[in-house]
Structure formats: structure tokens, C-alpha cells
Amino acid sequence: MSGASKRACRPHFSALLMRGAFLGAFASTAPAHAWQGSAAAGPEQASQAARTASGGIADIVVTARRRSESLQNTPVAVSAITGATLADRGATDISAVAQAVPSLTFNTTAGNSGASNAAVVFIRGIGQDDFFPTIDPGVGIYLDGIYVSRTLGSVLDTVDLEQVEVLRGPQGTLFGKNTIGGAVQITTRKPSDKFEGSLEATTGRFDRIDVKGSINIPFTSSLFGRFSLATLNRDGYVTILRKDPGTGAVTEADAPKLGDISTIAGRGALRWEATPEFKLDLSFDYTRKREQSSGTTLLATQPLVPGIPVGDPNFINANAATIGGFYNLVVAGAQGCNPLAGGDAFDQSNPSCFNDQYVTGNPYTTFYDPARSRSDLDLWGLTGVAEWNVSPDVSVKSITGYRRTESHFMRDDDTPFRLLELQTDQTARQFSQELQFSGKTMDSRLTWLIGLYYFSEKVRFDNPACFSFVCTAVKTKLDTHSYAAFSQATFAIDPRTNLTAGLRYTNETKRNDPDNFYIDNGFGLPPFAVNNPNPDPATIIDNPAKVKLKNVSPMVSLDHRWSPSIMTYASFSQGIKGGGFQQRVILPRLQQPTFGPEKLTSYEIGAKTDLFDHHVRFNIAAFWADYKNLQITVFDPNFSIEPLQVNGGTARIRGIEVESTIKPFEGLTATLGGSYLDTEYTRIAPNAAIPPDAVLPYTPKWSISGGLSYAYELADAGTLTLRGDWNYRSRTFFNAANDPIISQPGYHVVNMSAAFLTRDEHWRLTLGVTNLTDKAYLGSGFADLRNSSFADGVYARPREWYLSARYAF
């Protein structure tokens, strides 16, 4: 980064600091005598009583610091959305939280996967879009306290959810590795001592038929159970086309559309309150999906060059000549289109570099092989949480979890030329055990937490793939064992000021046993298999590899409550994302390439306010982060078609986030929030295909959302609630190279609904529309312009109406 660029960084962040200082100065003018009591208890009780009396904004309880406390008393940038709010928004899975949470991107399909349930989650520019198990995610997803380690199967359905919390910024102390960007905590509804239940049915566009049911049963005065079951069904929205290579005629294939939904999900939970001091929660969840591949659309290919037989499986629709023993793309008469000859960059502005022969321009149609379209998932998990209040000041908590995921998905960007044929089978099993010891001392001035954590995982992964130039089998066995010890404590310096400090030590070992080899497609081994160092010339790599991680992640924060309604804080924290293995190895070698962990250091200031008698809530956070050892993709200079994952750069991230809720009178609620993110690579590896002015992927500079809800009493009949939600995202790139072909320009999404709740609150009817303006926008994408020379993307679902009826008892 140039000196001018560095100098340009400072004024912007200084402005953020000045705004924070101004807000703190404003806060300090509030009457200090309005509240007396400890920071831990006084303001929560006082503010809750005040807002209840005045009809203000309801309090929200979060567990961002592994203990229950008010959102407004938590010195962490955290957003909380209830399951009821998600239902009001028409959400069917947890990815919908991204429409209301600043700095969050949450998509359901990883580019180039074909899977409909591979989570792509980014917070403040940090995450992971690769579904391979040898690469860790950058945002941790937790279900009832259990870490969900793999992206496949992480897109959980909104069945009997209590709340979703999104913690922004590194959470390395309390949540461990792979929360370098943040964490998403999902809490399900727990059994209670009340007999109740509900049944809901929904219909809508694309032959939607959803049925959900839940029941809560108090078996005895101390044993309760809760059970839920849902079936979610919707047709796909991307039509598969066929093009006759002889006549050129395009017809619709007689096959199901891509991007459908076909899910069965169930959950059972028991709660045993053995004594007032001891409580045990046991739960089991199961999900089964049998769907077509994700709604992938072919966006671009290189132009067809005369002289290559149509349908030749060894070549893409560009001339592939053997030059120097390697396949090299040569496009006749198209200057600047060949990235490998002479080292020229691929000129995406040159229209002759692409061919629209198989690109329809319609985001909801694609050329695909229906026989290779599947996205299946079987997932089940067991969770046990035991809590024992040893004394009024000491508690012990045990969190035990086991999860098993089986995924099978396929994809084929099919034209008369082979672009990519992919099949994936993955079985993942994980076990985790966490012990927490917590309490208070020094007359409750010191609140402390000490924890121990163990995690083990076994993944079996099989990913045969055929490109235009080679077919490979990519297999691996991945075993992980991780141990951690952590502690965090909050000390009340005075009744208004708290100092929090924490530390986590992690010791982890990953072992990977790869088995990559060439698949003979009738043309023999590829030229680059000559002089193979392995005894078998068809072997790419089969020697085990190992990576280790030893890390200490600290955090420190200071918060001060200026009045019962205003709190400010400043924090320093670090996080780490584990290293891994390069599994997409095409060039034969004896040792598997590995890469080390990413590290993030974050500085943050923020304020949380409840103003005007709790009718206005305004929270703001400004941050600066140094991002080191980024796991980015580079290309081997001796074999440029092989992408390698390496620690190839550093970046700087700065931004500001705002969330506000306004409730001027009973029945009307308005929300407005957003984020501004400024990201920049400060160092890039020499061979990385990243331009110097690139920004981090899946990170729009501007994200803004707003909502308006009005509940109107219809005499004695009930309540009619009208709701509208709006979300805006500025231009977003979907890879580190910032390829324009798979970027999404700024766009708006609008959802609306009307719900009628009867006076006795037994019946609720909802009519709604999602994506009201029918905006076609990309949620993820993949571009391989150097090698296979194609680009594709997954568009979000188009406009959909829905009508649901819910009966509760």
C-alpha cells in the first residue's frame, strides 16, 4: 500500500473516533444522579420497569458473554432477532438474519459446489466461501451452545427457534478458533411447565407446501418435553435448457428445476428440573433434504474456436494446445483474452473474450445435465446441557454435543463442451465437551468464568471432478483433535464502570490423509503427469500431512454507564482461524501443501442507548482491524492452472455499524440499521491473482436495512399487523480477485406482509410477499477465467407470495 493510501486511512478512522467521542460527550451531559446501584443489576431492573410502564421498547436478553444479560448492558457488538420476528419476515432458514444485521452476509450456497445447504457466512469482511472440509470457516455457528464445524449442513431451518444472536468481531476468548469474524448463536425453544402447542400450514408460489407443528407437554411437575416436526416443500426456480449442437435449437429439458426445497426437520427436547439448583436439558434434532442442485446459472464462457470437434471431452470451448508440455488456452483473433500466453491478464472488458452461445441472459435458466443434479443431506445431533447452582455465587455448566452429517451433491455446467462435472460425498462426525465454572465474588463486584473445552472430528470426503483438460479423484480423511482452556472476568471498578479481561489457550492437531489420482477418461494421462515422483503415474498425492495450532487469544474491554439510558465501551480483542490443507492438487507431488492460520486484531468503540423514556434505541460501533496471514488463492508459477491456498497477504478493515429502533407509540415500531465497511489489501503474495485495488469478497461497502410495523386493533375481532422490510447492499464481489463477471451491483430487496391475530390469540393468518420488486441478484459465484474459462453464479429466489394459517393452543 502506498504512503498516500496509508495517510488516507487515518482521517477516515479519525472521523469515526470523533463521532464516538462526540456521542460519549453527549452521553456525559445526561443526569448522572438518575441511577444508583451496581452496574450488574441496577440498570436492568430499573430500565425494565420503566419501559414496561411506558410501553417502550422491550428488553432483550442475550448470552454473548456466556451469561444471560441485557443486550443494552453487553459491551459487545451483538444483534438479536427472535424466532417470531424471523417468522414475521417470511424466513424459512437462518440466512434471513442477514437482511437485518449490519456487516453480515449469509448465503446458502458456496460457489462452485452445487449444494443447496453450504453456508457462506461473512462478518465485517471475514469468512469463508469454500465448502472443502480442509479449509475452516471464519464465522462460528453454534446451535444451543454446540459448535457446528462444517459449512455443509450449517443452513439451519427456522423450526421452533427462540432467538438468533449475531456477535460481530473476533470472539476468540469465549468461543475459540474460527470465530475470527464473529459468531452466530442459535437458541431453540426449551420445554416448559405449560401445556401448549401450535400447527401451521403455508402455501405459496412454486407450489409451496409447508407444514409445521410443535407441542409442549409437562409430564410431571419437574419433567417437561417439547417436540416439533416440519416438512418444507417448494419447486425450483431455475429452468434447465437444452441446445441442439447441430440445429442450435434451444428447448426446455424435461427435468425438475434447480433450487427447489424438499426438507423434513424434527426436534425433540426434554427438561428435568430435579431440584431448584439442578437442571438438565436433552435434545435430539434431525434434518433430511432431498433436493436438486442449487440454482446455478452459467454466466460466461470463452468463445468457440474452429478446429476443435464439438463435444470433445478433453477441451473446453476454446482451443487447447499443448505448449511446453502444459495445456494452454489460445483464443484465435482475440487480443488480451489469453491469460497464460505472455502473462497477459484476462481482459474482461473485451467482448470477444466471452461467448454468449450458452449464456441466455435470463438469470433463471441454465444449461445443465439433469442426470447430475442432486443435493442431499442427512443430519442429526444430540445435545446435553446440565446446570448446577452449587451455591448462590458459584455455578457449573456442562455442554455435550454429537453431530453427524452426510452430504451428497452433484453439478454439471453442461454445454456440448465439458466445463465442469462435480460430485461430492462427505460424512462428518463431531463430538464436543465443554465445562464452565462461573460465579461472583467481592460482594458481586467480580463476575468470573473459567472453562475447559474438547473437540474431535472425523471427515471422510470424496470429490471426483472433470474439467475440460483433466479428470481427477479427490479424496481425503481428515481427523481433528482440539483442546482449549479459557477464562474471562468482569470487575466493577465503581458502580458505573466495568473492566473485562479474558484469555483462551488452544492446542489443536489436524491430520489429513489425501488420496488424489487421475481418472482415465479415454485420452490417457495428462501431459503434466510425466515425471511423476510417485511410484504409480496415476497418483497425484497420497502421503498424509499434519498441521498444529497453539494459540493464545486475549481480549480487554472497558465500559462506562453515563446514565440509566446510555453506556459506552472500548475493546481490544484477537481471534484466529485454523490452518489447513490444499486438497485441489492436480500437479503430482509427494507432499501435500499446507497453510497456516489467519489472525485478526480488532479495536472497537461503541455506545448503547435507550432514549426518550425507552422509546428510542440507538446502538453504534466503530472498529479498526488488522487482518494477517490471509488464506488466499495463488497459482503455481510453473503450473498456472492449479490453484493453491496459501497465507498470501494482509488486509486492513475499518467500519462503523448502527442499529436503531423507534417506538413512538403503542403499535408502531420502526427499525433502521446499517454498516459502512472499508477494506483494503495491504500486502498481496506475488503470484496471487488479486488486483492491488481489490476489496475483500462478500463485503459490500454499504449495507442498510429498515423496517416498519404497525399493529391496529380491530375492535373485538383481533389485531391486524402490517409490516414492510427493506434491505440495500452496494456492489459486492464474490472472490478475492474481484472478477467483475461474478460481482453484484448495488440492489434493493423489499418484503411485505399483513397478519391478523384473533383476540384470543389462537388463530393467526398471514399473507406476504418476499422480493416484492422481483429483483434478480447474485448471492454467490465462481469464476475460473484462467483455467476452465467459465463463470457461474447463484441468483436469489424471485418474487414469491405466501399465505399461512397458524393455530396455537
UniProtKB/TrEMBL annotation:
It comes from the Bacteria. Keywords: Cell outer membrane, Ion transport, Iron, Iron transport, Membrane, Receptor, Signal, TonB box, Transmembrane, Transmembrane beta strand, Transport. It is a multi-pass membrane protein. Gene3D superfamilies: TonB-dependent receptor, beta-barrel domain. Transmembrane segments: none annotated. The keyword Zinc does not apply. Residues 350-772 form the TonB-dependent receptor-like beta-barrel domain. Residues 71-183 form the TonB-dependent receptor plug domain. GO terms for biological process: iron ion transport. It is found in: Cell outer membrane. Residues 1-34 form the signal peptide. Its main location: membrane. One of its GO terms (cellular component) is cell outer membrane. Belongs to the TonB-dependent receptor family. This is TonB-dependent receptor-like protein. The lineage of its organism: Bacteria, Pseudomonadati, Pseudomonadota, Alphaproteobacteria, Sphingomonadales.
